[in-house]
Every structure is written in structure tokens, then in C-alpha cells.
Predict the structure.
Amino acid sequence: MEFRQIVAFHGPNRWSGVPTLEVLVDLGALRTWRSSADPSMVARLLSWLPALDDPPQQAPSQGGNEPPQASFHKLAEHGLPLADVLKRVTCVLEAAAGTPPEYSRCEETLDGASCRVTFQFEEESLGRACLETARLCVQAALADAAFDAPAEIRKLVDLADDVRLGPSTRAILRAAATRGIPCRRMTGGSLVQLGEGAKQHRIWTAETDQTGSIGEDIAQDKELTKLLLRQVGVPVPDGRVAETAEEACQVAREIGFPVVTKPQNANHGAGISFDLMNCESITQAFDLALHENKAGSTGVIVEQFAQGPAHRLLVVGDRLIAATRGQSDVVVGNGHSTIAELMDEENRDPRRGANYTDKLCKMSLNEAARLRLKRQGLTSDSVPEVGQEIIVCVNGDLTTDETDEVHPAVAERAVLAAQTIGLNIAGMDVIAEDIGRPLEEQGGVIIEVNAGPSLSMHVEPLYGHPQPVGDAIVELMFPGGEDGRIPIVGIAGGSEASQIGLLIAGLLRKLGRRVGIALGCEISVDGQRPYVLRGSDQDRIRSLLLHPRVEAAIFESQSTEALAIGLGCERCDVAVLTNLAAAGPLTSIDGVLPLVHAVPPEGAAIIPATAPHIDQLLSACRGHTLLYSTAGETARLRDHQARGGRVAFFLHDSLILGTGPNAFFMPLKGIESPGPIVREHLLPAVAAAWSAGVPVELLRDILARTGL
């Protein structure tokens, strides 16, 4: 089994409307292999990957060719080709890595010598890795060889953690997708654009383009944060920065033992020591905290040790959205195992891992843990008695949702803290015995305010209910149900595409829209000097959607490029197909399918009534279809309109737009150049503008006044 060619389409393509890997598979002598003749191979696959028997998570609208209800063993009994088995295993591995595909397909090439396997991917490198692992798995099953499925899946999960967006960002993107807001990852990191053109916003993990940089800087300075919070009446722990271990001991005497030491500038709880009861322990903890300081920061914070569990409160805008309670890392003695052995046993819990997406972190015998054991008179080799609880780390994982338990006064203090620091999204680290009581009543304190807080403990708490934190952040950026979309019009065809694009732009401007147009290598945005952008159509399309002034985007799609690499945007509200017959027998259909696949259910495809393969084009479009003809009202148009479709045609000196039983007449007597070329271009342009939301009355008025 050899992969002759792998092509990655990062946008709508000839196969589907989602990012797709296309793999040309040469099966060689296994071309005639069928699963029904090798039940032992199927049994091996199912023993390694039981999820193969789960129904495929496939969206019918994406063009998959498998019955949604079919399980693997049922299909195998009827005789699956090996390429279909490879496709199914690949999809299961993608799901195991956290990226279940909604589209997959397998078909033989025309010569029958090989097969094309296509499937959706989220990140190209992860999709390729799942494909390669699937090949190893299938080959091992054929040869009755060993295959360590858990180990291979773990490799894929680890790769997914490296290349995918993090759980905080994904939570926001899921909420945006539910609202129909388009999203695009802008770099290999966590910078993501939500919305398009003039309606866009950006996020970087749990920070938005509205998050103040001054607030971020203040939050990184823990002492300044406490000073500001204390001045507005938010309870914070007593303490200050010490430059030496001796000064740290003096601070502890002033505020009273026990105390906490922590770096003046660090992240993720690094270098923090809790419940220090004497100067000896402070001296040891001081060096640890000093070492964890970021470059340029000196000194160690010494502050009172507040009693109670840790809580993380999330504030978005002017509301408390979620709260999660933490737990300490604890091992329980059995009378014969050392502390190190007990920790190893805890770390075998499958929920624990080294990745930030794991439910629980691995227990670690780091320097802070060793110092804590030492203060208890223990080492990692100590053997606790039966039932004896040993706290290895005070600030362990945040595990339990407690949003409904937060007292209103605590929520008010959290919101006040975020506003005082100047953050629109903030994570509050709170120490309190009971989050259901006001902080002041119990000596509870806010110990930190975090910019760009992690959302994972709220999205997928180990215990309790998930909270809609992504929805709250999306609403903050797009209030009142806004979807961040601008009209996008794509035009495929020959030389007439540019003229049609300019006509559409003129019509959209009548709505007061600032239009951006990409025709050839030139980009023109209203109010800005045209500029040349070399590269691909994808580059130019994305530049329009990135431009902060564009309120409507129009682009030309070259069939050869769309066929080779796909489309540069995930959605095209109106796809205009022009003279397809002139584009050649292959690209006349395959080259425009990416554009058609990009049309959303509420969008429209404008198609010549004489287009080749028109039935395939109509069936491939998820949105509305409008057929147009310069030859007048044809039988094809009448049939299409009778079936509920839209039509456009010329009748004498009028342009007719029809939908269902309705027809709208637009006199063309005022058009100064009524030649056949202008009329031919005007028909799809008016149809596209109508489909993009320009009212019929306005179109009629424009045509009457020749104001294009």
C-alpha cells in the first residue's frame, strides 16, 4: 500500500466545503482484497480500535459516500475494499486525537489502478500523521503483526496538543461557530480572527483586541495589583516584596506566620511555597521563588497565608461567568509504599498527564514539593502510615465547578477587581474557606488577577457542570447577536469575470458599503489607492477579509488554482459562474466546485442555464441556485422557477428576476450602451447583487438612472 500523492486543500475544494486531504493510494496486489474474505484481519482491527464500530460522524451535506448508520463490522461483512478500510481507520484515529471528521470519501480512479481517499482535517500535520498511523495499523492487521494502539494514539494526542489551538481558544471558536461567526487562525500560534473585514475582532487565547495592554502589565505586577485592589476595598493578603532572605524573614515577623513566598513575576504557580512557619523554611523557599522570576525581575513576595482551598473566578465584561474550586495534590499512605511510590501510583491515573489538555496534572517531586516534605520531616522515601494523608502540593488542579455557589458579594468583588486592573476578561485567584460567604466575613482574599486566563477548568471541569464561558466572550465582542460577516461574492469564469465584478461592486456601493475587489493581481478598496498583491488567489481573498475597512468583498477565482489548492475563504455568500463552457472539459466543472461548495445554506450560486454538468452543480450547492439566460425565458428556466428556484433573463428591453410565482420587471431603456456584451455582463451582476441583499426596488431605480 503506497501513497502516490497527498494534496492538502485548506479551504472549500472540489471534494467538499471543508479542509480536505486528498490521497492517491496505490494498493498494488491488494487491489482486489475484500474484508469479507479476511475476517481475522477485521477482528484484529476491531480489537485495537473498538471505536471502528461506532457510527461515522459524517455530515451528509459534505458529500460522504457511506450510510450514516453503517457500522464497520456490518460493512466489512459485505466486503469493503482496502482503501475504504484505510479511510475508516484514519477517521477513527482523527477522532481519537480530538478532531473527528465530518467528511470522508473513497473512490476508484478512472483507470482502476488506484483509489483516492479524501477526508476532512483540522491541522494538516495531524491529518497526515493520522493517515500514516492508519497505514501502519492496516498493514499490521493484514500481516498479523503487533500494533500498540494505545501508544500510537497517545502520540497523535500529543501531536494534537502541539499543533492545535488550545482548549481556551477552541471554547471561544465553538461558541463563535454556533453563532455563525467565521473564524480563521492567522498564525501557527493562538492568534485568531473572528469576523471579516470591517466587522472583525481578534483573540489571542482568552484575550481580545479590546483587552487593555496597561491592564495586562498591571496584572503581571503582583504587588501593584494588590495595591490597587486594596485601595478600592477588595480584600487582599498583607505582605510586600523582599530583596533578601533576611528581609523576607523580617516581613514574615511583621505580618505574622504562617506566610507564603512567591516570585514577583512568574506564571502558572511556579516557585510558590505555602504555609511557611519559620525563617529556616523561608530562607529555603526564597531561593526557589527568586529562581522562577522572569528576566529583569528581582525580589520575592512574602504575604500572609490565607486559610482555605483555592478558587478560580472568571470575569467577562461586567459579569462573573464561572467559578471552579481547586484541590491539593494528596497521597494516602498504605503502610508499605514510599511517598514516591504512592505518587507514581497516582500518576498512573489515565486522567493525569503532562499535557495542558489532560484533566489532571502529573504529581511532581519538584523542588517546592521536596521542601514541603522536608518541612513535615519527610522525604520522598518516607513510608506514610495507613490512611495518613500527605499534601505534596497545596495548589493542585482546579477540578470542581462551583459557579452556582458563589455569593453575590464575592462576585461583585471579583468584577470590581477586574475593572480596577483594567481587564475585560480576567481570572481571579481567591483563597477562602467558603465561596458562598462574603470574603470579609471569613478572611478570604483575592491573591492574583490574571490576564488571558485559562478557560479549560470551566469548559471541562472534572466534577460539576461546564459553563458557557466561550459564549460570554463571543457576546463581549459581538453583542446583540452580531455574526461578524460581510457579504462575499466570488466570480469564476473567463475574461468577463472582471467586468461582472466591477458591475456588482457598483451595485453594492448603492447600499453604502465600502467595497474591496480582488481582480487578477490587483486589489482595490474604496477610498484607497489600488495595490498589487502577488501570490495566489487565496492570498488576495484573505487580504480582503483581513482589511479593516472592507464592508463587502468581491474576488475572482481562477478555476485552475481553485482546482489545485482550493478556495481562500470558508464561505462565499454569492458564487457567480460565467461562461464555463469556454474553460475546458475538466475545469469547467471541477474548477468551479470549490466556489459552489463554499456557498452556505443561506447563500446563492448564480449559474448559466447552459452550463455543462448543470445538474451536478445544482446538487453540489447547499444554498439557493439562480439560473440565468441571455436567450430569454427558456424551458430550463421555467422548470427551475417552478421548482422554487430563482431565475434571471432578458425580455425585450427589460431584465426579469423571478422567484417562485413572482417576477420583477426592470426596464433597461436607460442603459446607454445596450450592446450584447454589456447586457450579458449585466444579467449575472444584477442577479448577484439581488442575491447579496440589494432590494429589487433599489436595483430597479439604479437601472432606470444608469447610475452604475
Notes: The first helix runs from residue 39 to 48. The CA atoms of residues 311 and 499 lie 62 Å apart. Residues 329-393 form one domain. DSSP finds 24 helices and 32 strands in the chain.
